[in-house]
């Protein structure tokens, strides 16, 4: 540890206002230099990973107790990640290494995870891009998973600074070719043996069989059929090779407008009503073509408006519901609330927290999505209607709304396997452009829209409100959202199944966390953490949805009536959408902020108690078994997984090393003018005549 | 607890809402079945009404007025847990209205409070929970530096303080009398809590009577120095003035003020910027406006912010953290005051004690904390709540104690394993803060309670709670001695206590008990059963019985596979 420069703290007095520039004075650093250079941490490379450039004597700022101190080390950039190799990793104790993320170390940033890079020049913070004329004395990296790194380059050799800074900027910001994704070098270097137990495996929906199985599972096979008309992507590259359409639909119709204007089946409800989606026909000026389009659509609608099909209600999602632009703007405002450079910034924004949150509109967008999903659920469940989702390409809001409806209506989608299959079905096969929406190739910022993140956030609201209804926990969702930026798993790195198939010749690794236990290297966390990912509350979800009593044709009544009844976790699940009920996904968004850490608290505290109790019950059960069978003394107890659970921080299993001491975190600025209450504030508590004392 | 009833005295509680009552002739259903009634509760009158429910529309029913509550029995089946109370706005039924105001505000009509009529019997006597001598002994007092004094035995020194006080050993009773002349309402600095190891203390008092002219009092200055020296500290004594500095300065005009550096050389003063009772009252009113009858939807967050309620909570918690940190780090003893030392001071000392001393996080410990820092030290419950008093616009009313309980709730939310009690415990305390069913929160100070013989003539709330303890226990509680608990006083973690403030809204219904808790309870039951079985097996072994033991009476429902072994 190096010298500390104290900022903040201080009982109620005005703390000095630190900038993001530097808290460590050069003198303080040099005093400890010797001990630093002796230790060298080796860089761990993944198979196929190559070192591109590096710089030594880089100082990484670590914040602790409203002070910052620096750690010396090497900053490297590979074709997979930016990594800082400091000397304090040896200080980890066992409990902490046990829960280390195996792919991404504490100081690793995958290239895809880099959001913004700032340089500090003469105490001024500037965005860095392109060719630099001048090199900064400090580098600030904002990550897409909302980590913030500060690296001081003041003590680094000039040519090393040039090399590392321009290297990092180039490899994270320059437009890339798909073929250059690390995914491919990794896949070539590793042997992929896709060990899979088909029964307990995510359905990939890349075969006709998978779709038939899904049709059978939802009893949709009476009115819908799986078609292979797009095998080899003959009809279009946008749609998957296999998909499901209404039985009477002719194959020529699919070919007619390359799959546009065709109702594609998503899911069937227990009462027979179905969720369909359709991409809009190309916009045309020519009246003749328009006429043709119209009669084509009329034909299609005639097919699906006739019995045995239910009444169809069309939901135009590209119309007045929610625009991608809105989502993008909201999220970029929202994420800024968590990309916090220092303690002062944290406390300065704290007092305005709720209005800042509201002005980002992110929570409101979540509410609107949930509300739309409830409306659709009501139509299907209570009014027995078919819903046809309409969107230009049917690959953004269609994915979001249709998968949300399924999570709410189909308990299978609330199991881990079911959820992964849903993501595979609606998002991956549904042609959501992950490559563009995540801007993995850095080709267009305009296209970058966190639609999938929005979906995960909506699901989180449901998980948070009804934990026993899910087999997985919020930690699972957080890890899933992180994996969007880890180019080892191919799931989120293509725009369409066609693009994937034409670029990948061997089977890639799929979503994380699906691996069999035989290949521990590939798991995201070690198995111990599995408990935190798997929901300990989820009992087996197997029952199908109970048909509910007569429900009114009105959203409000449907909603109120559902909420007034006891929740059936294996049945229909609706979220609360009132103001206080839509919350910030603290684990995902606040996990790297030391000020927000509750030492020995948070939901982790109860979860680990639950875990301890599970273990105790299990070991007791074993003891009983042994007594029964051998009448011998039981063996030693299995080791406890989470020792000292009361000392875990609320940020566990993320950001383990943020804070060790038990000192309180004190707000450094607190008081705000009360405005219209000023006169009250000036009043005496009670008027007292103190003359007589 | 009785569901669709409410006590008449809850003038501050959020469920307050006027109801419109109209008579209705058509209904002739027999309603003679008895309504739930407490021993000592008598029916005054009843009438058929239509209750205009803000959530479910009009509901037919019959309203009963007893000397304790207003009770509505619904004729419709889907009646949820609705409570309602009244304001003096009724118009159609003059007699009903008069009866109601009489019994709702008995003090204005020279009637006794229900607590004095209540004949409930419990197998535990809550009045014995707090014994000051025992509590001080638990803290290791008296010791070489602190003594217990009976100078206030007959409330002569200070009529709003308890009879028993802990003061520095080196200060004589005469010193105390002289200090009293310089402290507002004679509330001299006395010990609230002492750190078991480093012996730093939390001391509470009222503001010094400095006044415009900047009066000095050598005895007061010397007294603070004696306090500073009790733990042989070299550094200055830390004084936390809970008020914003402007208010402290303004108080000089009415004779009050604060300890200035140039007079108190060995003390360091900080202001904690916590606002006064009027600001808090208005803030809570705004909270009510955004949650009742409808919960603000589209602008929930900015509306919540504009109430400032959580901001005030943040400041109170921040202040308490500072007090606790000073003491815990052993840096310095702390003296806390505001103006009179019975509102903000009580909040700060009791919250700091809750952070520092795990004993107060148990059910009985918390009762002792409330009994000590709030009830015995003269938080003016009667004035702040307005028990039985019709003057609901009284400027003395303020939800200071509610705010404290809210802070405790925020802490229990952040540290779900650190408290022996659950949310229900905090809610029942608040319910009976307003109910007047128990004597616990009646009157402003010990001396008034003694005059009214409250402990003899009324039942204590702790009797009700302690005779049903299981109901109020947090299953996740892990006892950790000496663990200091610092909550994070950031808006990112503070939240509106929905289960209290919005509990009557059927749309915002939280699962009770929460699913994690429920699951844990199941596991606990399973564990106990296994332990029992194991004991039985061991017993069977030791008596060398070869046949397998008979299966226990209630096989587990939770883990079916387990049963296959038996």
From TrEMBL, chain A:
Pfam families xrefs: 3-PAP, Myotub-related
Compartments, as annotated in UniProt: Cytoplasm, Myofibril, Sarcomere; Sarcoplasmic reticulum
Coiled coil: none
InterPro entries membership: MTMR12-like_C (IPR022587), MTMR12_PTP (IPR030576), Myotubularin (IPR030564), Myotubularin-like_Pase_dom (IPR010569), PH-like_dom_sf (IPR011993), Prot-tyrosine_phosphatase-like (IPR029021)
GO BP field: phosphatidylinositol dephosphorylation
Annotated GO CC locations: membrane; sarcomere; sarcoplasmic reticulum
Record's keyword terms, sorted: Cytoplasm, Sarcoplasmic reticulum
Residue ranges occupied by any Myotubularin phosphatase domain in the UniProt entry: 205-589
SUPFAM superfamilies, per the entry: (Phosphotyrosine protein) phosphatases II (SSF52799), PH domain-like (SSF50729)
Claim: Zinc is one of the keywords in the record: no
Domain of life, source organism: Eukaryota
Main localization of the protein described in the UniProt heading: cytoplasm
Subunit structure, interactors included: Heterodimer with lipid phosphatase MTM1. Heterodimer with lipid phosphatase MTMR2.
Family statement drawn from the similarity comment of this UniProt entry: Belongs to the protein-tyrosine phosphatase family. Non-receptor class myotubularin subfamily.
Role of this protein: Acts as an adapter for the myotubularin-related phosphatases. Regulates phosphatase MTM1 protein stability and possibly its intracellular location. By stabilizing MTM1 protein levels, required for skeletal muscle maintenance but not for myogenesis.
Protein name: Myotubularin-related protein 12
Lineage: Eukaryota, Metazoa, Chordata, Craniata, Vertebrata
Gene: MTMR12
């Amino acid at each position: 540890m190096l010298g500390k420069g104290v900022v903040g703290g201080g009982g109620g007095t005005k703390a000095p206002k630190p900038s993001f520039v530097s808290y460590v004075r050069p003198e303080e650093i040099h005093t400890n230099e010797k001990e630093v250079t002796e230790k060298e941490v080796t860089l761990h490379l993944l198979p196929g990973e190559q070192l591109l450039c590096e710089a030594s004597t880089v100082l990484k700022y670590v914040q602790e107790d409203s002070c910052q101190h620096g750690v010396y080390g090497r900053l490297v950039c590979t074709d997979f990640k930016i990594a800082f190799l400091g000397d304090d990793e040896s200080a980890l104790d066992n409990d902490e290494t046990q829960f280390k993320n195996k792919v991404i170390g504490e100081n690793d940033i995958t290239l895809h995870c880099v959001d913004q890079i700032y340089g500090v020049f003469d105490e001024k913070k500037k965005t860095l891009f392109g060719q630099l004329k001048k090199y900064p004395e400090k580098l600030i990296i904002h990550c897409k998973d909302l980590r913030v790194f500060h690296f001081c380059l003041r003590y680094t050799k000039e040519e090393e600074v040039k090399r590392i800074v321009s290297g990092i900027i180039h490899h994270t910001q320059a437009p890339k070719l798909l073929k250059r994704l690390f995914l491919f070098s990794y896949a070539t270097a590793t042997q992929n043996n896709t060990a899979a137990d088909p029964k307990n495996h995510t359905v990939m929906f890349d075969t006709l069989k998978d779709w038939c199985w899904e049709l059978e599972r939802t009893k949709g096979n009476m009115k819908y059929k799986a078609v292979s008309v797009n095998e080899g992507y003959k009809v279009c590259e946008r749609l998957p090779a296999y998909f499901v359409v209404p039985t009477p639909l002719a194959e020529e119709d699919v070919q007619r407008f390359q799959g546009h204007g065709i109702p594609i089946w998503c899911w069937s409800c227990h009462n027979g009503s179905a969720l369909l989606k359709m991409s809009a026909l190309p916009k045309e000026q020519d009246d003749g073509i328009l006429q043709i389009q119209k009669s084509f659509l009329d034909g299609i609608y005639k097919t699906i408006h006739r019995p045995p099909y239910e009444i169809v209600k069309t939901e135009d999602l590209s119309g007045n519901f929610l625009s991608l632009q809105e989502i993008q703007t909201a999220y970029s405002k929202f994420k800024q609330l968590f990309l916090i450079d220092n303690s002062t910034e944290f406390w300065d924004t704290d007092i305005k927290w709720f209005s800042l949150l509201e002005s980002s509109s992110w929570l409101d967008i979540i509410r609107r999505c949930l509300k739309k999903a409830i409306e659709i659920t009501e139509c299907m469940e209570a009014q027995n209607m078919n819903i046809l989702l309409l969107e230009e390409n049917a690959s953004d809001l269609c994915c979001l709304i249709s998968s949300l409806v399924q999570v709410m209506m189909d308990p299978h989608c609330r199991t881990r396997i079911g959820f992964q299959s849903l993501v595979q079905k609606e998002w991956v096969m549904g042609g959501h452009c992950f490559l563009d929406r995540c801007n993995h190739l850095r080709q267009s910022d305009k296209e970058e829209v966190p639609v999938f993140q929005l979906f995960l956030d909506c699901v989180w609201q449901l998980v948070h409100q009804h934990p026993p209804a899910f087999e997985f926990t919020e930690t699972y969702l957080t890890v899933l959202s992180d994996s969007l930026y880890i180019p080892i798993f191919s799931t989120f790195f293509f725009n369409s199944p066609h693009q994937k198939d034409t670029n990948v010749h061997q089977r890639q690794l799929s979503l994380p966390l699906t691996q069999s236990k035989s290949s521990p290297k590939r798991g995201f966390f070690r198995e111990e953490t599995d408990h935190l990912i798997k929901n300990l509350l989820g009992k087996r979800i197997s029952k199908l949805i109970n048909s509910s009593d007569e429900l009114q044709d009105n959203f409000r009544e449907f909603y109120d009536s559902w909420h007034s009844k006891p929740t059936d976790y294996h049945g229909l699940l609706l979220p609360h959408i009132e103001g206080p009920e839509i919350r910030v996904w603290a684990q995902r968004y606040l996990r790297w902020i030391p000020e927000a850490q509750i030492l020995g608290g948070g939901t982790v505290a109860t979860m680990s108690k639950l875990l301890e109790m599970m273990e105790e019950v299990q070991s007791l059960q074993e003891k009983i078994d042994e007594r029964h069978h051998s009448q011998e003394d039981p063996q030693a107890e299995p080791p406890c997984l989470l020792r000292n659970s009361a000392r875990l921080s609320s940020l566990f299993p993320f950001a383990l090393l943020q804070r060790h001491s038990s000192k309180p975190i004190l707000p450094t600025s607190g008081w705000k003018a009360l405005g219209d209450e000023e006169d009250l504030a000036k009043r005496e508590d009670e008027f007292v005549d103190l003359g007589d004392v | 607890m009785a569901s669709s009833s409410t006590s008449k005295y809850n003038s501050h509680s959020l469920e307050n809402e006027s109801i419109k009552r109209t008579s209705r002739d058509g209904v002739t259903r027999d309603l003679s079945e008895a309504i739930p009634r407490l021993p000592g509760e008598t029916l005054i009158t009843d009438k058929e009404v239509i209750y205009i429910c803000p959530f479910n529309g009009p509901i037919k029913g019959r309203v009963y007025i007893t000397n304790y509550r207003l009770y509505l029995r619904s004729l419709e089946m889907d009646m949820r847990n609705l409570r309602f109370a009244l304001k003096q706005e009724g118009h159609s039924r003059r007699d009903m209205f008069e009866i109601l105001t009489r019994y709702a505000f008995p003090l204005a009509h020279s009637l006794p409070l229900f607590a004095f009529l209540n004949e409930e019997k419990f197998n535990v006597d809550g009045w014995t929970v707090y014994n000051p001598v025992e509590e001080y002994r638990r803290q290791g007092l008296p010791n070489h530096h602190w003594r217990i004094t009976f100078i206030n035995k007959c409330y002569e020194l200070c009529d709003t303080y308890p009879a028993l006080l802990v003061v520095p050993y080196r200060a004589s009773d005469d010193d105390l009398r002289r200090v009293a002349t310089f402290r507002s309402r004679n509330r001299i600095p006395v010990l609230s809590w002492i750190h078991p190891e480093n012996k730093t203390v939390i001391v509470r008092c009222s503001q010094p009577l400095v006044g415009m002219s900047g009066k000095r009092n050598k005895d007061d200055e010397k007294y603070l120095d004696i306090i500073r020296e009790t733990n042989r500290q070299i550094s200055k004594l830390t004084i936390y003035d809970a008020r914003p500095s402007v208010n402290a300065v303004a108080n000089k005009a009415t004779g009050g003020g604060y300890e200035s550096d140039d007079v108190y050389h060995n003390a360091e003063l900080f202001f904690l910027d916590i606002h006064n009772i009027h600001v808090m009252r208005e803030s809570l009113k705004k909270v009510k406006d955004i949650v009742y009858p409808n919960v603000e939807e589209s602008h929930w967050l900015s509306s919540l912010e504009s109430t400032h309620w959580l901001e005030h909570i943040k400041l109170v918690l921040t202040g308490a953290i500072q007090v606790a940190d000073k003491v815990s780090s052993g840096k310095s003893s702390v003296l806390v005051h505001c103006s009179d030392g019975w509102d903000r001071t009580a909040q700060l000392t009791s919250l700091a004690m809750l952070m520092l001393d795990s004993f107060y996080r148990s059910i009985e410990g918390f009762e002792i904390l409330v009994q000590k820092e709030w009830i015995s030290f003269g938080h003016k419950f009667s004035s702040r709540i307005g028990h039985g008093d019709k003057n609901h616009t009284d400027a003395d009313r303020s939800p200071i104690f509610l705010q404290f309980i809210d802070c405790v709730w925020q802490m229990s939310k952040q540290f779900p394993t650190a408290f022996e009690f659950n949310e229900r415990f905090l809610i029942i305390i608040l319910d009976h803060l307003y109910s007047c069913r128990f004597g616990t929160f009646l009157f402003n100070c010990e001396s008034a309670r003694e005059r009214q013989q409250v402990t003899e003539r009324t039942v204590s709330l702790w009797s009700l709670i302690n005779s049903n303890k299981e109901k109020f226990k947090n299953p996740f509680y892990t006892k950790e001695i000496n663990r200091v608990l610092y909550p994070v006083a950031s808006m990112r973690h503070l939240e509106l206590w929905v289960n209290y403030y919005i509990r009557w809204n059927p749309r915002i219904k939280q699962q009770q008990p929460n699913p994690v808790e429920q699951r844990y309870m199941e596991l606990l039951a399973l564990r106990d059963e296994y332990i029992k079985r194991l004991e039985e097996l061991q017993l069977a072994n030791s008596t060398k019985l070869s046949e397998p033991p008979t299966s226990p009476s209630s096989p587990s429902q939770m883990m079916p596979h387990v049963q296959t072994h038996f």
